[in-house]
Specification:
This protein is an alpha+beta fold and 629 residues long. It is built from 19 helices and 20 strands. The chain folds into 4 domains: 174 residues, Neutral Protease Domain 2 (Neutral Protease, domain 2), CATH 1.10.390; 203 residues, Sandwich (Immunoglobulin-like), CATH 2.60.40.1730; 90 residues, 2-Layer Sandwich (Zincin-like); 138 residues, Peptidase M1, leukotriene A4 hydrolase/aminopeptidase C-terminal domain (Serine Threonine Protein Phosphatase 5, Tetratricopeptide repeat, Alpha Horseshoe). Helices cover 37% and strands 18% of the residues. It has a 6-stranded mixed β-sheet with strand order 4-7-2-1-10-12, with no helix packed on it. Strands 14-15-16-18-17 form a 5-stranded mixed β-sheet. A 4-stranded antiparallel β-sheet has the order 8-9-13-11, with no helix packed on it. Helix 3 packs across helix 4 and helix 12 crosses helix 13. It is globular and about 80 Å long.
C-alpha cells in the first residue's frame, strides 16, 4: 500500500475542512471507482436480480439462471459484470435472442470480467413483461466456488443431511452469481431455489419457517442491497420465534440452545431503535450455522449468519448479535462505497454495538468489551507495525485481497474515533447527528472523503478548534493509534488485574477470587498472564479453573495459546479437537500462528490441518495455507 498519497494530501484535506459546504453533495455509486470490480456502473447498472437456481449436493454446484434488469446510460450498449470461476453457458436478451458476451483474462482475487452486448432498446422487442434491457444468464458454479461451503452429513449436528451456506463478503458473490460485485452498487432481488426434498432453504430476504413439500422456495428482497449481502443456506433447518419480529433458525439439535442464548434479540432491536431510529428490514432473524462458518457473524439483511462458537450457555458472547444487528444501520443501510472504506461499516458498527450492550446489559459490561477491543487493537498495530499504512482507517487495497483490510483497525480504531467524537461534542449531539446520518443516507453508499466533509460541517460545525481537537487526519489518514485516543475505565477489570497481581506474586490459582468472573473477565485474566509460565504453574492453574475442558470457545482460544507457547502437552488432544471442529478464522488463526513458531509445533499443526482443512471455508483455509506453507 502506498502511503505517500495520504501524506501529500494532508494540507489539501485541512483546507477542505474549513471550506466545506453545510450541505455537501453525496457522491453517487456511479462516481465511486471500486478497484475490486470490473463493472461499469457509470454506463450500465443492475437494478434488480432474479435468480432461478437448483442446488445439487451430489455435484456440489448451483445451476440455473440470473436475470438482470439493467439501467443503460450514455447510449452505451454493453454491461460489464464480475465473475470468478463461473461456467457461463449463454446469455439471452429480452426478445429471446442470444447476446454476444466475452470473458476477460483472469485477475488475481477479482476473477474475470463478463462483458455482455445489449443492443439499443429500440431494436429489441421485449417478450412478456421483461424490460427491454433485461438479460438472462444461464450458468453454473464450480464445486470449489469460494463463497460456497458444502458440508457432508457427518459435518453437521444432525449427521443426517448435507448442508450448504454462502459467504459473499467481501468479493465472493461473483463466485456464485454473475453480478456487479461492488458495495457501491445496490439492487433488489427475487429468487426461486430448488433443493432436495426434506430440506429448508433461507436467504437474506423474506424467509419461510417450514419445509416446502416439493423442495421449492420463493424469496423476495424489496430493499436494494449490495452483492456482498446476497446469502443462501440450505440444510436440516428448523425455526423458533424469540419475539414479535425476531427468531432463530438452526439444526434441530441446536435450536433450543440457540433460542436460550439469543433470547434477548427482541430487546436488542428495541434498544437499537431507541438509539438511532427505526429498524427498516421488517424482521431480524438469525441462523446458527455449522462450526465451519468462517466468521463470528455475517450481517445478511433480515437473517444474520452466526457461528455456534458464541453459544456459551450464559449469553456472555451475545455482543456478536448486537454487532450484526447494528449493521442493519451501519453497513446494510449506509454502506462503505469500496472496501478501502471498510472502516465506515465496521467502526460505526462496533460503536453502535457497545451502545446496544450498554442499554441492555449495563455500562460495566459494555466497557469491558470496549477495553478488550482496545487491547486487541494495540496488539494488531504492534503486529502490523506502528507506521504501516494498513493501520490507517482509509486503506488502499488495490491489487490486494480486500480481506487484508479485515483487522481490528477498521473495527476498533474506527469505534474509538467515534468515541472521540462523542467526548468532543457530547453523547446527545453525536446521537442526534448519527440518527440524521442514517436517515439522510439510507440505502446509499458512503466513502471516507464524503464522510469527512459531513462530520466537519454537520457535527463539528466547521469549528476550527473542534476540528483541530479531533485531528481527523491522524485518525483516518495516519498510522497507529493517535495520542488523543479515548481511555476506557473498567472497575471490574481493575479487580481482575488485582487477582492477576496476586497470581504473578506467587499466590495459588485456587486462592484467587474468581467465582463470579464473566467471560470478559476471564479473557482479561488470560490476556494478562506472562508469556512464559512453568509447566507446574500451568497445571496448577488448569486444575483450579478447568480451562482445557472449557466449553467457551473464546476462553479456549486464549488458553490454548498459552499452552502452545509453554509446551503444555496435556492440552494437545484438546487443541486438535478444537482446530478440527471450529472453522471460525478469528479463533483458529492465532493457534496456527503460535504452533508455526516452532518446528515441533508446526509439524503438529500440519498433521492436524490435514484433518481440519476439509471442514474449513475458503476464507479460513486460504489464511491457514499461508501460515503453514
Amino acid at each position: 500500500m502506498n502511503g505517500k498519497f495520504f501524506a501529500a494530501s494532508i494540507v489539501f484535506i485541512t483546507t477542505l475542512y474549513s471550506c466545506t459546504s453545510p450541505n455537501p453533495q453525496l457522491l453517487t455509486p456511479d462516481s465511486m471507482k471500486d478497484p475490486h470490480s470490473f463493472s461499469n456502473p457509470d454506463d450500465a447498472v443492475v437494478k434488480h436480480l432474479t435468480l432461478n437456481l437448483t442446488v445439487d449436493f451430489e455435484k456440489k454446484i448451483l445451476s440455473g439462471t440470473a436475470m438482470l434488469d439493467v439501467e443503460m446510460k450514455n447510449n452505451v450498449k454493453q454491461i460489464i459484470l464480475d465473475t470468478r470461476d463461473l461456467n457461463i453457458e449463454k446469455v439471452i436478451l429480452a426478445d429471446g435472442s442470444k447476446a454476444k458476451f466475452s470473458l476477460g483474462d483472469e485477475v488475481k482475487y477479482t476473477g474475470r470480467s463478463l462483458t455482455i452486448e445489449i443492443p439499443s432498446v429500440e431494436k429489441v422487442k421485449p417478450a412478456s413483461t421483461l424490460q427491454p434491457s433485461a438479460i438472462t444468464i444461464h450458468y453454473s458454479t464450480k464445486p470449489d466456488a469460494a463463497a460456497l461451503q458444502w458440508l457432508e452429513p457427518s459435518q453437521t449436528a444432525s449427521k443426517k443431511l448435507p448442508f450448504l451456506f454462502t459467504q459473499s463478503q467481501a468479493i465472493l458473490a461473483r463466485t456464485w452469481v454473475p453480478i456487479q460485485d461492488s458495495p457501491g452498487i445496490r439492487f433488489t432481488y427475487s429468487a426461486i431455489v430448488k433443493v432436495p426434498k426434506g430440506m429448508l432453504a433461507v436467504m437474506s430476504a423474506e424467509n419461510p419457517t417450514e419445509i416446502s413439500p416439493d423442495g421449492e422456495y420463493n424469496f423476495e428482497m424489496d430493499q436494494p442491497v449490495p452483492a456482498y449481502l446476497l446469502a443462501l443456506s440450505v440444510g436440516n433447518i428448523s425455526f423458533k420465534s424469540t419475539g414479535g419480529r425476531t427468531g432463530v433458525y438452526a439444526e434441530p439439535e441446536v435450536i433450543d440452545k440457540a433460542v436460550h442464548e439469543f433470547a434477548d434479540m427482541e430487546k436488542m432491536v428495541n434498544a437499537a431503535e431507541d438509539l438511532y431510529g427505526p429498524y427498516r428490514w421488517h424482521r431480524y432473524d438469525l441462523i446458527v450455522l455449522p462450526p465451519s462458518f468462517p466468521f463470528g457473524g455475517m450481517e445478511n439483511p433480515r437473517l444474520t449468519f452466526a457461528t455456534p462458537t458464541v453459544i456459551a450457555g450464559d449469553r456472555s458472547l451475545t455482543s456478536l448479535v448486537a454487532h450484526e444487528l447494528a449493521h442493519s444501520w451501519s453497513g446494510n443501510l449506509v454502506t462503505n462505497a469500496t472496501w478501502n472504506d471498510f472502516w465506515i461499516n465496521e467502526g460505526f458498527t462496533v460503536y453502535f454495538e457497545n451502545r446496544i450492550m450498554e442499554k441492555v446489559y449495563g455500562k460495566d459490561f459494555a466497557e469491558m468489551n470496549a477495553a478488550l477491543g482496545l487491547e486487541g487493537l494495540k496488539e494488531t498495530i504492534k503486529d502490523l507495525g506502528d507506521t504501516s499504512a494498513d493501520t490507517h482507517l482509509k486503506l488502499n487495497l488495490a491489487g490486494r485481497d480486500p480481506d487484508d483490510g479485515v483487522t481490528d483497525v477498521a473495527y476498533i480504531k474506527g469505534c474509538f474515533f467515534l468515541r472521540l467524537l462523542e467526548e468532543t461534542v457530547g453523547r446527545e449531539k453525536l446521537d442526534d447527528w448519527m440518527r440524521k446520518y442514517f436517515d439522510t443516507h439510507a440505502f446509499k453508499s458512503m466513502n471516507t472523503e464524503e464522510l469527512v466533509k459531513i462530520i466537519s460541517s454537520d457535527l463539528l460545525n466547521n469549528d476550527s478548534t473542534l476540528i483541530s481537537k479531533v485531528n481527523m487526519n491522524a485518525w483516518i489518514y495516519g498510522p497507529g493509534l493517535p495520542a488523543n485516543c479515548p481511555q476506557v475505565k473498567s472497575e471490574r477489570f481493575e479487580k481482575v488485574d488485582a487477582e492477576l497481581k496476586k497470581w504473578n506474586g506467587g499466590a495459588k490459582a485456587s486462592s484467587l477470587e474468581t467465582k463470579h468472573f464473566s467471560t470478559q473477565e476471564w479473557l482479561r485474566f488470560l490476556q494478562g498472564l506472562p508469556e512464559k509460565i512453568s509447566p507446574e504453574r500451568m497445571k496448577e492453574m488448569d486444575d483450579a479453573f478447568g480451562f482445557t475442558e472449557s466449553n467457551n470457545s473464546e476462553i479456549l482460544c486464549e488458553w490454548f495459546q498459552h499452552c502452545i507457547r509453554n509446551n503444555y502437552l496435556q492440552a494437545n488432544p484438546y487443541i486438535e479437537t478444537y482446530l478440527i471442529n471450529i472453522g471460525r478464522r478469528k479463533l483458529v488463526k492465532p493457534l496456527y500462528q503460535a504452533l508455526a513458531a516452532t518446528p515441533q509445533g508446526k509439524e503438529f499443526a500440519k498433521n492436524v490441518y490435514t484433518k481440519a482443512r476439509p471442514n474449513y471455508h475458503a476464507v479460513t483455509y486460504h489464511t491457514i495455507d499461508e501460515i503453514l506453507k
